[in-house]
């Protein structure tokens, strides 16, 4: 399964509605006794995610893998909330499409990202949270 920055940002925003993502991530990294410098680098990249841009916030694949892995760890553990949020967002997006606020192409991109996020979480649940992330040319592949 391939995932891009759009998937990650969508998931990050959804998780932000249910938790203080940055605070929880920092706490969990400290509990895991990660190196303080690595924690600071990861947290800086989390802050930078709030700035809209096409590229990833870093070229350091290890940092990106930590962020992506934690996002999916949280998504799997908040699967019911994710499903509910995606249902509500679908209703609103459909309304915006009908009223002309959202363009058809944007609607289908949004819908595809939501569907793929849901499928990725189901895949991880089936795999029992054991997977490998491979990064190549701005895209992660989950196997």
What pattern of helices and strands is seen along the backbone? EHHHHHHEE
Compute the number of strand runs.
3
Strand order of the largest sheet: 1-3-2
Protein structure class: mainly alpha
The largest β sheet comes out as: 3 strands, antiparallel
Estimate the mean pLDDT confidence: 88
* Oligomer description: single chain
Residue share in β-strands: 5-15%
- Uncertain stretches of 5 or more adjacent residues: none
Q: What does the radius of gyration come to?
A: 16 Å
* N/C terminus separation: 7 Å
Counted by DSSP, the helix tally is 6
**Helicity level:** 55-70%
Shape: globular
Essential attributes:
143 residues; single chain; 6 helices; mainly alpha; globular; three-stranded antiparallel β-sheet; 3 strands
